[in-house]
Write a structure and sequence with these properties.
342 residues; Aminopeptidase; Elongation Factor Tu (Ef-tu), domain 3; 11-stranded mixed sheet; 6-stranded antiparallel sheet; 9 helices; 17 strands; 29% strand; binds zinc ion
Length: 342
C-alpha cells in the first residue's frame, strides 16, 4: 500500500496535478511503450497489443483515472496575514472546519482552516446555527502578514492534509477519490501479460471541476472503447435508507449502469459481468442518481464512444476520511486486468 499512501498524500488540485503526475510517472517506468503529457496536463500512456487475433484490427481501449482532487486556490491575503480561498470542486462545508491545510507557495507551508466567527462559548443562538460558505473560511498560517506575503501568492493551491491510514479492512485518507483508481489502473495493467487491445491509460486532469481533461484526451486518442475508473458513493452507513446505498463497501467492484453524466454501454456491462462471474470476482451493479465520471466526457467525444465506468465504493466521499474497502480495491484491479486479458 506504499504507492497508494504516497498517492493520497501528494497534493493535486484541479489544474495543478503535476506532483501526482510525477508520482505516477515514477511508478510506471517500463510499463508502457510510450507516454506523453498533453497540453492540459493529462498523462497519456500507451501499450501496444501483445496478442494477435488473426483477421481482427486491434481495438484501442482508453482507461481514464483522474489525478486531481477537490481543493482550493488562494484568492486573498488580508492585512493580518489571514488567507481566503476559493474552491476548485465541490465541498460539503459542514465537514470543512478544523482541518489542517497545505499551501503550495514559494515553499510548502501548513495552516489551519476554520470558518471566521465566534466559538460557541460566546456565540448567540443564531450564530451557532449558521451554515458556512467556503468564502467564510479562513486559513491561519501562524505567520505575520509580511512573511505570509513573501511565501504565498494569489493563485497558490491549497489542499486538506490527512495522513493515509489503514483502519480495519479499509484504507482511509484524503483524495482516495481518485487516487484509489489511479492505483487500480497501474496495478491492473501490471497484471496483464498479454492483451488483444492497444491499452491507453490516461491519468486525467480537472475532473472535479467538470470532466475537463478527459474530453480533449479522448479526442486525441480516438479510442474504440473508453473506461473510466473512479470512486463512487458507498452509503451503507447509519442514517441512510437501504435503497439509497448506491454501493456497499466490501461487496465488490462497482459496474456502473448510469449516473448523472453517462449511461454505460450495455454490451460492455454484460462483458464485465460475465468476466466477473467467470473469474469469481465480487461485483455490484451501480445506479448513481447524481454526479458523474470522466465517462461522461469520453462518451460524447468525436462521434461518440462506447463507455463504461468501473467504480470503487467509497464511504464519506469528499471528506478527509474517505474509506475504501481493500477487497473492493482489489476487485476493481482484478476485474479490469481480467477484461484486458480476455
Ligand atoms: Zn472522482
Amino acid at each position: 500500500m506504499e504507492f497508494l499512501k504516497l498517492l493520497t498524500e501528494t497534493p493535486g488540485v484541479p489544474g495543478r496535478e503535476e506532483r501526482v503526475r510525477a508520482v505516477v510517472q515514477n511508478e510506471i517506468a517500463d510499463l508502457f511503450d510510450h507516454t506523453h503529457v498533453d497540453a492540459m496536463g493529462n498523462l497519456v500512456c500507451v501499450r501496444k497489443p501483445s496478442k494477435v487475433v488473426t483477421g481482427e484490427k486491434p481495438q484501442r481501449v482508453m482507461i481514464a483515472a483522474h489525478m486531481d482532487q477537490i481543493g482550493f486556490y488562494v484568492r486573498h491575503i488580508d492585512d493580518k496575514g489571514f488567507i481566503r480561498v476559493h474552491n476548485a470542486g465541490g465541498f460539503d462545508t459542514r465537514n470543512l472546519a478544523a482541518n489542517t491545510v497545505l499551501i503550495q507557495g514559494r515553499k510548502d507551508i501548513h495552516g489551519v482552516l476554520n470558518p471566521g466567527g465566534k466559538p460557541i462559548h460566546i456565540a448567540t443562538e443564531d450564530e451557532r446555527r449558521k451554515i458556512f460558505a467556503v468564502s467564510d473560511f479562513v486559513v491561519d498560517t501562524g505567520l505575520p502578514a509580511k512573511k505570509v506575503r513573501e511565501i504565498v501568492r494569489i493563485g497558490d493551491p491549497v489542499t486538506l492534509v490527512k495522513p493515509f491510514s489503514q483502519i480495519g479492512d479499509f484504507v482511509c485518507g484524503q483524495a482516495m477519490d481518485n487516487r484509489a483508481a489511479v492505483w487500480a489502473a497501474v496495478r491492473a495493467v501490471q497484471r496483464v501479460k498479454k492483451s488483444r487491445y492497444e491499452i491507453a491509460v490516461v491519468f486525467t486532469v480537472q475532473e472535479e471541476v467538470g470532466l475537463r481533461g478527459a474530453g480533449p484526451a479522448t479526442f486525441g486518442l480516438e479510442p474504440d472503447i473508453a473506461i473510466a475508473l473512479d470512486t463512487t458513493l458507498a452509503c451503507d452507513t447509519p442514517g441512510i435508507p437501504d435503497d439509497q446505498a448506491v454501493t456497499r463497501a466490501g461487496e465488490g467492484a462497482g459496474i456502473k449502469i448510469m449516473d448523472g453524466a453517462s449511461i454505460s454501454d450495455r454490451g460492455l456491462v454484460d462483458q464485465f459481468v460475465d468476466i466477473a462471474r467467470r473469474e469469481k470476482i465480487n461485483f455490484q451493479l451501480e445506479v448513481l442518481p447524481l454526479g458523474g465520471t470522466d465517462a461522461g466526457a469520453m462518451q460524447r467525444s468525436r462521434s461518440g464512444m462506447k463507455t463504461i465506468t468501473l467504480s470503487i465504493p467509497t464511504r464519506y466521499i469528499h471528506t478527509v476520511t474517505e474509506m475504501t474497502h481493500k477487497g473492493d480495491l482489489h476487485a476493481v484491479r482484478d476485474l479490469l486486468a481480467a477484461w484486458l486479458s480476455a
